[in-house]
Amino acid sequence: MPWVFVLIWSTGFVVARLGMPHSPPLGFLSLRYALSVLCFVGWMRWSNVAWPERAQWRHLAVSGVLMHAGYLGGVWSAVKAGIGAGTVA
């Protein structure tokens, strides 16, 4: 799985640059997240791993919002504004 993570993470700025002319930043990220959730849920069911306990869901939600909506939303908005990926990173 580490190589899958590296492949997906390393193509993030390329996908952002190619997708930005066709979609607003948060709309594109929403589609990306929806596809990620489908893949992740499928993988979890296939591998029979335990789902997080009820108390963990709030922590997962807060960290997800901060990392993805905060960080990646800002990055993709910057790319949409024309700032280079090297500067944003």
**Which class best fits the helix and strand makeup?**
mainly alpha
Percent helix, as a range, is over 70%
- Ranges where pLDDT stays below 50 over 5 or more residues in a row are none
β-strand number:
0
Instruction: Specify the number of helices.
Output: 5
Principal-axis shape: globular
Q: How would you name the oligomeric state of the polypeptide chains in this document? A: single chain
| First-to-last CA distance | 24 Å
Structural overview:
- The protein is an all-alpha fold.
- It is 80% helix and 0% strand.
- The radius of gyration is 15 Å and the shape is globular.
- The mean pLDDT is 81.
SSE layout and pairing:
Elements: H1 2-10, H2 12-19, H3 25-47, H4 54-80, H5 85-88
Q: What features would you highlight for this structure?
A:
single chain, 89 residues, mainly alpha, 5 helices
Q: In short, what is this structure?
A:
The protein contains five helices and no strands. The chain has 89 residues and is mainly α.
